[in-house]
Amino acid sequence: MRANERLHAMIPGGAHTYAKGDDQYPENLAPVISHGLGAHVWDVDGNEYIEYGSGLRAVSLGHVHPRVSEAAHREIDRGANFARPSIVEERAATKFLETVPTAEMVKFAKNGSDATTAAVKLARAATGRPLVAICRDHAFFSIDDWFIGTTAMSSGIPDGITDLTVSFPYGDLPATERLLRENAGRIACLILEASTQLEPPAGYLAGLRELADRYGCVLIFDEMITGFRWSEAGAQGLYGVTPDLSTFGKALGNGFAVSALAGKRELMELGGLRTGEDRVFLLSTTHGAETHSLAAAIAVMETYTEEGIAARLHALGDRLAAGVREVAASAGVGEHVVVRGRASNLVFGTLDAEKKPSQDYRTLFLRQLVTGGVLGPSFVVSSALSEEDIDRTVDVVSQACLVYRKALDADDPAPWLGGRPVKPVFRRRV
To answer: For this UniProt entry, which residues form the secretion signal (predicted)?
Structure first.
């Protein structure tokens, strides 16, 4: 508690990412982390947890992965940043384009928002069009105004900027075509995650590719989450549909700060020095090419391709999903505690007696997890988890489901909340 109070006294929100805020956890059960190793973390009070969704899905190989840490340490001892490009940048770009062969060029940055905003800027420059079309069913694309203006936390963003962003529903090609037709010649790009909790309907991604070509806009895949977790070549490699631009992050650095904008040469070169077109100020970040982060990314990509990490993530996720579904059904809450998503990227839903999403029941469930030694804002696995970790997690979930059943029977989860309920990140007021 005291550590959280000190954080709030100095840092707005008490954390550097809203999704890590203590309002996302039950009251007085938001641990402040001391350190981690593999799939386990310890808080400042010495409590140990099995961790899921590590680093907001970034740490997919587990904390202090030997190969990644060694690569980063080696480059730190050789210098982190120079007046000219490091040879590590060439090595990282080579490895990335080998791993994601559908991309022709790549530029690295430090966070996902910089990469997605750069993709939007490229699309606008290439097409001369003002509007950005985002998939309205996907939760997050950027901290920048073109996206945040569309959320409940739009304070500080002029309406004129928000008016330049329109939206389309996932999986609905006719609705997307209507949007393109109604805004003919004005939409610069379609940006979406190729897949989230649902697999794309048959022909959907190829249909988007055809619509983008027909209406002259840029197709952008946000692969911040799908990159590496879906396959070593990302969702585009798995589904066989190549976007014009794509953005990667999270798993790319296993916790180190690195992201990537990748795509077709004709578009990417607009941000370079070898075109006669008007120049685009694409990505120019002082720390974008820190040697240790790029060395970590190289080690991550090598580990994924050589050790079949994506397949391991899917196997672990399958084991976890099966176990959770079994114990939830046994406790009579199989229709209320639900596991969704691709096996490598599992989330859970907490539904009330009417089978509607409930923050109160999420609070109850999270409280049981944390007190049982599982830090799980989601069920997103890392490859460092052991089968014993998964089985232990299922045991904790089993006990949580028994409490969940009691709350449903009482038609009141309040006695098991321990305080205020957890809150959604995107809300207008505290």
So the answer is: none
Which listed CATH number (1.20.120.530, 3.40.640.10, 3.30.70.1400, 3.40.50.10140) goes with 66-307?
3.40.640.10
Whether pTM > 0.85 for this model: the answer is yes
3-state secondary structure of 42: strand
Which residue ranges make up each domain of the chain? 1-63+308-416, 66-307
Query: Which residue carries 């990417």 as its tokens?
Result: 268
361: nearest Cα among 336, 326, 329, 340: 336
Averaged in consecutive runs of 10 residues, what is the pLDDT profile of the chain (430 residues)?
90 92 94 97 97 96 98 96 96 98 97 97 98 96 96 95 98 98 98 95 98 98 97 97 98 97 97 90 93 98 98 98 98 98 97 97 98 97 98 98 98 96 92
Whole-number Å distance between alpha carbons of 96 and 258: 12
CATH class belonging to 1-63+308-416: alpha beta
Contact 372, 396 (CB under 8 A): yes
Would you say 14 and 405 are in contact if contact means Cβ atoms under 8 Å apart?
A: no
DSSP 8-class letter at 141: S
